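During the second half of the funding period, the structural biology subgroup turned its attention to how the target accommodates small molecules. The most pressing case was CO-5-methoxybenzimidazolylcobamide, which had performed well in the primary screen but for which no bound structure existed. We therefore specified the complex as follows and requested a full 3D prediction, including the ligand pose.
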Amino acid sequence: MQPPEGRKVEIEMSVLSDIAELVQKGKAQEVSDLVAQALDEGTPAQQILDEGLLKGMGELGVRFKNNEVFVPEVLIAARALNKGTETLKARLVGDDIKPIGRVVLATVAGDLHDIGKNLVKLMLEGAGFEVIDLGTDVAADKIVAAISENQPDIVALSALLTTTMAAQGETIKAIEASGLRDKVKILVGGAPITESFAKEIGADGYSEDASGAAEAAKSFVS
Ligand code: B1M
C-alpha cells in the first residue's frame, strides 16, 4: 500500500537529506544504495541530483572554504558523489541509442575537478551523444590528438579554478594552430566561466550547468 501523499513527501525528503549527509561523510556504497532506493520510490532523477547529491557537496564546499574540512575529506565525498551519479546514469541512459553526435570532453590542464565534467557527460549521454571522456588535467596537445583521432562534432571543456580558466583559451589556440578549429564546435563551462569569458577566448558556446551544456550541444548538431 502506498503511504498517503504528505507522508510520501516526508519519506522522500528524508531519503534526500540522508543522501546529502552520506555524500559529506564519503559513504559511497550507502549513497549509491539510497539513490537506487529513491529512484525505486519514484523520486525524479533531477530531484535526487539537486536535493540529495549536489546539496551534500554544496554544504561540504562551504565547510571546505571555512577550513572546517580538508582535501582528503572532500576527495572521499567526491568519490561518493560520483558513485551516486553512476547509479543515476545506469537508470537514465539506455544502451542501444544511436548517437546523435560525438563529443570529446575534458577538464583542462592543471585542474583535477571532475564532478561537473561527469555531470556534463551524464547529460550529454542522456541527450544521445557518444562521449569520449579524456579525464582531468588534460593538456591541450592531448585534446588536439583526440580530435584528430576521433573526429568529434564537439569539444567540451570544463574548468573549476580561476587559475585554470586560461587553459581553456590555450586549448582553443592549440586547436586553431593544428588546423582543426573549423571541424569542431567548442563548448566551455565550469564555476568561474562566464559567457563573456567564453566569447573572449573564441568558444562557440557556454553553459552554466550540465543540462544547458546538453541543450547547447544539441543545437550544434541539429
Ligand atoms: Co576544489 N576548489 N580545490 N577540490 N573544490 C573549489 C572549486 C573552490 C571554489 C573551493 C573554495 O575555496 N570555495 C576553490 C576554487 C577557488 C577559485 O579558483 N576561485 C577550490 C580550490 C581552491 C581547490 C584547491 C586549490 C585546494 C587546495 O589544494 N588547497 C585544489 C586544486 C586541485 C586542482 O584541481 N589542481 C582543490 C581540490 C579539490 C579536490 C580534489 C579535493 C575536490 C575535487 C574532487 C573531484 O572533482 N573529484 C574539490 C572539490 C570537490 C571542490 C568543491 C568543494 C566542489 C566542486 C564540485 O564538484 N561542485 C568546490 C567548492 C564548491 O564548488 N562549492 C571547490 C559540484 C559540481 C557539480 O559543480 O563542478 O561547478 P561544478 O559543475 C557545475 C557547473 O560549473 C557546470 O555544470 C555543473 C552543474 O551542472 N559545468 C559545466 C562544469 N563544467 C562544465 C562544462 C560545460 C558546461 C557546464 O561545458 C563543457
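Two results from this model are relevant to the next phase. The chain has a mean pLDDT of 92. The chain has two domains: 5-91, 101-221.
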